[in-house]
Amino acid sequence: MSDILLEIKNLKVHFPIRSKQFFGGSTTYVKAVDGVSFYIEKGETLGLVGESGSGKTTVGRSILRAIEPTEGQVTFNVDGQTVDLSQLQGKELRAFRKHMQLIFQDPYSSLNPRMTVRDIIAEPLVAIKLAKGKEVDERVRETAALCKLNLEYLRRFPHAFSGGQRQRIGIARALISRPQFIICYESVSALDVSIQAEVLNLLMDLQAELGLTYLFIAHDLSVVAHISKRVAVMYLGQFVELAPTKQLFSAPKHPYTEALMSAIPEVNPDVEMVPVHLKGEIPSPVNPPSGCRFHTRCPYVEDVCRTEMPEWREIAEGHFAACHFVDSLQLKGTVTADSIGVVN
Ligand code: SF4
After folding, report:
1. Contact status, residue 32 vs residue 14, Cβ threshold 8 Å
2. What CA–CA distances, in Å, run from 38 to 6, 33, 74?
3. Model's pTM, two decimal places?
4. How many angstroms is it from 192 CA to the middle of ligand 1?
5. Which atom of ligand 1 is found nearest the CA of 240?
6. Which of 111, 115, 134, 300 is the most buried (most CB within 10 A)?
């Protein structure tokens, strides 16, 4: 347990919506995240995948306390001490942010066009008051070099750079406070494929050099496969499967994971692709389906799925899933896990 950096227990984020009526009105809740528990080890990358509306973004934002969780606990092990993030407020919370940073999705809109690269990278350092004067410049140069940015770029403005270079600037900004934990939120999805590989390799090099821990949130499974040690799959506010990357991709145990995998383009022409077509859209998180939340779209649904919620259980070492038929379903993974770059 001492290798755990971050532990999340029963995290819930419910957003209230009030209906307007003459006599009072009632409050209902959007259950964006509904009872999620997991941990991330020091130096590990945990991938988090799911369709839009699954709640993966809200999990990331509530860990950073950009959104206040409704319920649950987030603890962070730092310098031999366990810190309960829900207990931090005001100055204490601001100071603690140096340990946790975010790399944004869009390298174009996430950089202020009126600030120089030097000022953009220095911003968190100045905001958290971690350094001033010459020390700021030294830290900016050191961090820019780590991110393989030419030091001559520091005086320029973001418009002078390509998407890949801008994302390096965003990574440098996230690294300047020397965080231990970084949330990569769709951090390569806006980039060309060739540039995606460069940025992923940079993130992996930085992790090896600085011992960073990542939560890598993305919708592209092949990107997640490339960088993650374990992958969690989310559906309608809950985890449905979590496993070591290779195991998840070669032998998924939840029908939703199988459906997501079947959408990955197969590069081997000898392997026949049989896409799993899901029925309809993801249901509303205001009134999620009874029993198994996936039952309205699952190709293997049985009567019990409509009334009883499946148990989240460990079916092999480190491999968890929530499905009534986890032991009997023979699901297809990506046969050529190696060909999509599964490295762990
Ligand atoms: Fe499908 Fe039933 Fe398993 Fe849910 S419990 S994933 S509906 S088979």
Report:
1. yes
2. 8, 13, 10
3. 0.91
4. 36
5. 6
6. 111
